[in-house]
Amino acid sequence: MLDQFYRQHGSRMRAAGEGVQWVARNGEIVAGMNLLPVAAGHWLTGLFVAPSQRGQRVGSQLLEAALNATPGPVWLFCDPQLVPFYARLGFINAESLPEALASRLARYQRSKPLVALLRAQSSATSSPGNSTSV
After folding, report:
1. Helices and strands: H and E segment counts in the chain
2. Which domain of life is it from (predicted)?
3. CATH number assigned to the domain comprising residue 61
4. Alpha helix (H) ranges present in the chain?
5. CA 35 – CA 56 distance, rounded (Å)
6. 6 Cβ partners below 8 Å, 6+ apart?
7. Is 112 helix (H, G, I), strand (E, B) or coil?
8. 33 occurs within a structural domain
9. pTM here?
10. What is the mean pLDDT of the chain?
11. 20-26 and 41-49: which strand pairing?
């Protein structure tokens, strides 16, 4: 379902099978993202908001719901232009990364500029299932 949403909008993003997929709906999926377990936290990938929904806080609300339900730190890689968006949501520059993410970031940075960010959290308020909607 999330893969279909990504394809519908021409995105190369993919839903990660081993993670938790989050979606926002307005009758149909209007935003989606993945949280993959890594080290003692999660790696956020694939945050995408339908172009018609951008600027309406859909991405921010989806991300906040997911982060509030997710224990531990959350890391992500993003284009430097997106840092202000994530900073408003409590992300800071990641000074260190789990090895699995550090090696992946090094590979990705060979072809595009990316910044690693972190949002530290201590505990979740709930436990989502394998696929959760907000």
Report:
1. 4, 7
2. Bacteria
3. 3.40.630.30
4. 2-8, 58-68, 83-88, 99-108
5. 22
6. 12, 13, 14, 15, 32, 46, 48
7. coil
8. yes
9. 0.85
10. 89
11. unpaired
Q: Are 55 and 23 in contact (CB under 8 A)?
A: no
Which sign does the torsion angle of CA 11, 91, 54, 26 carry? positive
How many domains does the chain contain in total?
Answer: 1
Backbone phi and psi for residue 89, each to the nearest 5 degrees, phi listed first? -100, 10
pLDDT score for 17: 76
Q: Is residue 134 part of a domain?
A: no
Phi, psi of 33 (to 5 degrees): -165, 170
For residue 37, what pLDDT is reported? 95
Handedness of CA 113, 105, 42, 52 (dihedral sign): positive
Q: Where in the sequence is the domain holding 50, given as residue range(s)?
A: 2-126
- Looking at residue 121, its pLDDT comes to 73
Residue 131 lies in a domain: no
> Exposed, middle or buried, 27 (CB in 10 Å: 0-12/13-18/19+)?
exposed
Residue 133, in any domain of the structure: no
In this predicted structure, the answer to whether residue 132 has a pLDDT above a threshold of 60 is: no
pLDDT at residue 127, rounded to an integer:
39
